[in-house]
Amino acid sequence: MTSHPIATSHVFSTILTALLLLIHSSATATATALPVNVWPKPTSISWSSPYTIATLSPTFQFDSPSSPSNHYLSAAVARYHRLISSERHRPIYDTTTTNFSTSPTPLQSLSISVVDLAAPLIHGVDESYTLSIPNHSATAANLSAATVWGAMRGLETFSQLVWGGRRRVPVGVEIRDAPLFGHRGFLLDTSRNFYPVEDILRTIKAMSHNKMNVFHWHITDSHSFPLELPSEPGLAAKGAYGRGMRYSVADVGRVVQYGYEHGVRVVPEVDTPAHTGSWAGAYPDIITCADKFWWPAGSPWADRLAAEPGTGQLNPLHPKTYEVVGNVINDIASMFPEPFFHGGADEVTPGCWKADPSIQSFLSQQNGTLSQILETFINKTLPIITSHNKTAVYWEDVILAPDVKVNPAVFSPEHTVFQTWNNGPNNTKLLTAAGYRVIVSSWEFYYLDCGHGDFLGNDSHSDVDSNGGSWCGPYKTWQKVYNYDITHGLSEVEKGRVLGAEVALWSEQADGAVLDARVWPRAAAMAEAMWSGNRDEKGIKRYAEATDRLNEWRYRMVGRGIMAEPIQPLWCLRNPGMCNTVKPFVAQ
């Protein structure tokens, strides 16, 4: 394709200014400033003067090490070579002309070096990298990383530095980069509505582009059990929505493998003992209050049978329960190599257990409590999880719920991680102060399903509710996501126990048709906050500066096949600064 000289010059000036903005706002910038957007923003980036652009050689290649112990780097190198060869991204950001020089020497290669090719993809693995694109006569750029996974992050950065039909790249660039938090995740609920495997793979690809590294797969719930298990085939046969709405062992293997190839861990969650109504088709005897109306007419909220339509909880007093749960845990532990295993344990609803005769007898004749019943369940199932050398992850409810909870002494901080979702930083404080490691998913900031109304029929709240029509409204804007400080109010020791964060998409009102737009670019906002922070070098929140960069990144994501929703009219990108306010809005 022949480029028009005037149009080409305009694209160059556009990219140059964007890169300059990136450097000026970099957390530890050391030079004047860069033209192309890198998301999430690197922790340190510089572009030396005179500002110079080079083209990639038609024979540009990656020179990378290979190792039989880790072939994932080779897969990533091949993937990024295809991307760089085909993308031809042209920024939309409309700017004034900025002077730059053009190197007469094309860039011939990117040399990749990795210290530890065998380091596994687990929490805490070193994801740091340095990227150097020398100036003028040099023909090779250099990417150095401690591990394969850091090299993948560097390859993503390099891909974002390349643009245009002639594959231009800034030279004289130095980047030193590493994440603030080791856990940067996304939770997808595939029980309430089913997602084909291709939707999951596309999501993992998008996560990799945003340097996110944990796909939390909330596979089952009360609504359906879509996972086929060798030891318990009846659960999916009778609990899935249909034959075409199941995940086979091969499907799981495909997702896990794809995750490794993109530097994304796949953490399975099978929620127990609540949220298990879908088990009743195969095992009705071990499920209490299955298939009941969730909130009986005339009953107070305290006597509901579930948090939402879709009832059913495992009965911890039934011996068969532990045979089935043991089989489920054992199968999943073998299907997912990931060291974290999420056991759920949220939202145990008292009314559901109280509706069961055997539990009624325990409560009345033995003076037992529901908390004792839950503790019995945890004491019998937690050792099964840890017997597979897994770290057990539970929702915070299991020790923080106001009514049914377990003595914290049951959980060893060495083998347990808690995931918060209530009360913002307050619950994070409670857990970290008690010595536990924490993953933050506060619904007030990170629930991406909120603000889209509710799925209840005949709900009078829809006529009066001004909170987005949902229990967790309003809608969580990308700014709300970006600005959340997950370690607010913590001591330095407590901050060290925060592993990171996850945004979540619960799927009462979502499926593959809306997945991309519901998640992106809001998940990208969390990704940058977890990677390099949400504040500039002066400690000031940088959401205003991030707007144009996220806007541009959203368009690039769309070009990469991720149908992210827009955050502004296109006019705003073409008229920089015109969509800002000159002062904060003040309520009149």
UniProtKB/TrEMBL annotation:
Recorded superkingdom: Eukaryota
Alphabetically ordered keywords of this record: Glycoprotein, Glycosidase, Hydrolase, Signal
Gene Ontology terms: cellular component: membrane
Domain Glycoside hydrolase family 20 catalytic as annotated: residue spans: 181-533
Record-linked Gene3D superfamilies: Chitobiase/beta-hexosaminidase domain 2-like (3.30.379.10), Glycosidases (3.20.20.80)
MF GO annotations: beta-N-acetylhexosaminidase activity
Entry keyword annotation includes Signal: yes
GO biological process, one term: glycosaminoglycan metabolic process
Reactions it catalyzes: Hydrolysis of terminal non-reducing N-acetyl-D-hexosamine residues in N-acetyl-beta-D-hexosaminides
Keyword set includes Nucleotide-binding: no
Signal peptide region: 1-33
EC number: 3.2.1.52
UniProt-annotated catalytic positions: E347
Domain Beta-hexosaminidase eukaryotic type N-terminal: 38-161
Family: Belongs to the glycosyl hydrolase 20 family.
Protein name per its UniProtKB record: Beta-hexosaminidase
Source species: Linum tenue
